[in-house]
Amino acid sequence: MQLVEILTAGGHKVLFDQELLPGQDWKAELGGQIAGCDAFVYALTPASISSEWCEWEFATSASLHKSVVPVLMSPDMELPVSLRNLEYADFRQGASPVAVAKLMAALISLQKVAPADKPPVLPNPRGVPSRAWNSVSSWSDAIVPSQFNPLSEQEQILGRFTASLMRGIEGVGGRITITTQRFLFEANILSFQREPFAVAIHDILEASPSNSLGIVPTGLIVKCRSGEQHHFNTWSRSRIIELIQQAQRTA
């Protein structure tokens, strides 16, 4: 997901509850991760606010005096009262340079939740810990509805990543999908570019980083055997290049 990709690109090691497995002691696993972390990044969506596991993670982080960094993820999300005194990052309109700068600055500040704002730690949270992260994926799907149709039963999706297709100095926001057979780009619902475009994996001559402005490099260029070149901005360019090379080796 985009927030994890940005933090990783910024040099941070990210642990999150989607990595938990059924049958594990979730409280023990999450408690150990929180105890060993420097900061708790709270991705705020309607689902995460209503999730008892997310509430437990936040309360546990606050009780252990960890730095807490709120990030507004959903368009209709507002900052909860318990986080009112903290600096936050606003990703409601996407990962803009200002939003990313706010995120990084809040991480550096090591801000703590005031004693009066610390919530009680729930003894037995209900539900599933990964629920909030699944909601972030659903939010992304709402912004960029998938038009992917497999060419055959053998075509499998290897990864999906938020990106902007650059047309001169302007970008078209959307998502890159890498499959075992194709490289696809789908624009978001706000774009005039309604039709996705696709390049067969074996038609890609090279995928490489390109220079771009920003806090961390995000430029990606995809060169095709036809001579066409496609330029993107994405926080996941290293992973995209890796998956293209993987698909080409197995195609």
- Provide the CATH architecture of the largest domain: 3-Layer(aba) Sandwich
Cα-atom Rg, whole angstroms?
20 Å
Count of DSSP-assigned helices: 7
Derived from helix and strand composition plus strand pairing, the structural class reads alpha+beta
Uncertain segments: 131-136
What does this structure look like?
The chain is an alpha+beta fold and 251 residues long. It folds into two domains: 139 residues, 3-Layer(aba) Sandwich (Rossmann fold); 107 residues, Roll (PH-domain like). It has seven helices and ten strands. The radius of gyration is 20 Å and the shape is elongated. The relative contact order is 0.13. About 2% of the residues have low confidence.
Q: What's a concise summary of this model?
A:
With 251 residues, the protein is of the alpha+beta class. It has helices spanning 2-9, 26-36, 46-50, 52-63, 97-109, 131-143, 237-250; strands at residues 39-44, 67-72, 89-90, 157-167, 170-179, 182-187, 197-200, 204-210, 219-224, 229-233. It folds into two domains: 2-140, 3-Layer(aba) Sandwich (Rossmann fold), CATH 3.40.50.10140; 144-250, PH-domain like, CATH 2.30.29.30.
